[in-house]
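User: I'm curious what two different proteins look like when written out as structure tokens. Can you demonstrate?

Assistant: Sure. I'll show them one after the other, since each token string lines up with its own sequence. Here's the first protein:
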Amino acid sequence: MGEHHVRNVGVEGSNPFCSTKPKSKRGKGLRDLIGGATAVSLAGVVASAATPLVSVSPNAVNFGSSTEGSPAPTQSITITNNSGGTMNISKMTFAGALGFAIASSTCGTPIADAASCVVGLSFTPQSISASGTTINGTLTIADDVVSSPQKFVNLIGTGTAPVSNAIASYAPTPVTFAAAMGYSAQQNLTVTNTSSNPLYMSSLTLSDPSDFGIVNNGCPVTPNSLAASGSCTIALDFAPQSNETVAGSLMIADNTSSSPETVALSGATLTCPIGQPKGPTPPIVTPRLFFSGGDTQLTVTSVVPPDPNLIASNVTLLQVDSNGNNPVVLGQMYDDGTHGDAVAGDGQYTAQPTVNISSAGRIYLAVRTNYSGPPGCRQSNNNERPIDVTPPQSQFNRAQFDAENNALTAGEKFLQDDIAGGKSTAQAAQDLVNYMKANFPGVVSDAAVAGTLNDPTGVSVTFTSGRTGGFLLD
């Protein structure tokens, strides 16, 4: 075999790991002769074409809109070192419109391989001639990584021309609501722009939204504006939650020099002139029993306490369900000596409706009163009182039926007198049981307290005919 000769061959300006000068076999070139082949070992970094040596994210930043001279919210970019060695940021410069700047940076020290640093960028529009002006700029980032090109970040923002101060007036001030119980009629606040500049109102805030409310805002809200010399209306209401005079305010944020503007609000809770009126007594009905399937005239009386605010023509007799609901008007009640009323002006109101109930069972009657003045001083009293409706007359002895009716009517009066005399409900109920048993032999076979002895709900009566009746206790 012939002899193989190997010698160093260098090319000027080629690979930095190769030399143009011959090296000894023990030098740093690391040449080995193995089986006639030349093996060269090189130390260096191989970067994937898909991964840049230095990356910036994001490479475009939009700051949105901001008024001239007012900084927009800061935005951040992240610079990442993928070079395999330590990296230094050598310079960051801006080009384009004024207003972009570096607000903060963690890139002032060497950045290790695979590490990142963050740059905070700010945008403050300068010299905006017209609102909605688009402002563009570029951030250039230079580093010391070999073969790493400069990085560019596109910057964009929108500048809004400054708003000149307006002057606003408000009427009335303060806004005073009429005294109310539960609710007061709304009041309108008129806002007038008394300047030559547009008035921008960005928000309306109530200091006491539980008592005062904004029913309707007829004023434009930013970005819309109220033109010079223009007016608009804000509708407010008052619904007091406490028994006292209430003070509050409406705060309006706008482009006046004194923003936010404050408009005082006030209102008072109304109490009834003589307190909450007492309702009528439960109605006394005669007859207490009547037959179904035919017309029956009832005489119904109720005592209504005197009250200067009582509307006498609105004392009404109702037929209701067992819970006092679903009222059906049977007619007006009178205290003028007519319609069965015995004595005019004595406070006992009377009605004589004719009823025709188709089936046996029980119906409930109630008395409703109405008072003048604010809604909170009006009261509807549904003190229902049951009356029993029996099957057709042919099935019963008429004399027995009348005797039972008389017993119930007498028992009703006894109960009313007992309670009016100061007896407790429990004692009055027991007195009524004893009264019914003692005074109607041959008619009443039994009487008992309904509910409990300490908290009775009524008195039930069993007649010798097998029918039942009773009394409710309020």
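Here's a second, unrelated protein for contrast:
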Amino acid sequence: MFPSIFCRRICWFLASLLFIPWLSAAASQSVWSSAGAAKPQKRSSVQPSVAQAGEAPRPQLLDSGSNPALRYPVAVKDPSVSCGWLDVTRIGINYTVVESEVKSGGAARRKLAPGGAHFLATPVETGGSQGFALALLDIKYAGVQKGVMTMVTADQKRGVIYLGQENWGTVVAKPGTFERFAEANVPGTMAVLRAIQNFDSVLAEIKPPAPPALDVSLHAEPATVEKGRPVTLVWNSTNATTLDLEPGVGHVAAAGGVSVAPQESTNYTLTATGPAGSKVATVFVSVNHAESPPPVVVLTEPSAAAGQTVEVASSPLTIHGVAMDASGIPVVSINGKMATMRPTSSQAAEFRSDPIALNPGENNFEVVAINSAHGQTKIAFIARLTSSPPKTSPAQVNNPAGLAKAEILSLLQGEVPSAHVAELVKQRGIRFAPTPDDLKEIRNAGGGDDLIDAITQASNAARN
């Protein structure tokens, strides 16, 4: 009997040695079996990620243009543990190591990959863990089992979990915590898998909306004008924050109009800037340059008209006259030599030549006046030097040397004094038969009684 009792006790002792460690391990494992179970602070240093409570994390959007990528913080076991960035695109994934587990003397320690985290960086070898790149077409299987996303290709098998950057140091420094974080971050890992399987859907959820379209228009009313005439520039814009109208206007409101008076044909440009970028509208304004009327020239000494021959009794001859133009005082030359000018107003001046020695017989002269628009008037005449005083004849209505009504009005409008014009009428006569309306028009243009009397006397002499 004694051996039997002794044997039973020995068996119970041996069984307890085997069962108690197993029970302890099972109790420890049950602590990590549920993501929602409370964990005593002393039993773990695992800090839950954002996704632990069931909320799917939002990835970081890289390059929202033509080659977008969704970036997730992850941990990878292959078989050593590393942490870094998993960048998901339409055609593949790229993992860049930032921190990895390095074995040294039997103990684990953290090591930061050179250069830190870089999108699509060259994989960095760090103690057995390195980045990788996989094309979606090469992935034969991708799914989540026990909180770990497994990706299988023809020659690779990768285990990935979502892991917030704040926990990278923990999973790298403490071996064995990878699986525990896997259970705690299932929603985040599922979000990574969804991005791989439905990239465009996830991208649409996080991509910021496109800015409102920018539009701008510019018109000219009218688009063709004479030089110096006003033009109205009218514009409108949509979703613009600033508008600049050039040349010569500057910043303007979102819509409106402005009057300009271009001196030359001009291309106006309106540049609009807004959240969607910039856009330019242009309009061309054509400016026509009307031909400027030629200057008015009246010769007073000798009293000659274009193409006329005058008799001159003595030499030398000094040529006198009046030149006027609406754009300003013209330049006068006599036989190519500049005449001396004495302005009488802003638009008229008396001119005279130096004494000119005459040859016996006919002497040709050309008086030329040029205004600022390069319009010109020429009076060519012949001065015939004779030995006897020139013959005179009463003024005739058809006297070619006489002043026309238009010439008298031009002189007055050019601010030539009425008395001076009256002297010209007395010297040269007139070549029109004045009516009461003509005399009234001349008086309204500035003609005084002395000029009216001179015209009347010249008209009477012509009739006699």
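A detail about the second structure: Residues 18-53, 103-128, 389-396 have pLDDT under 50 and may be disordered.
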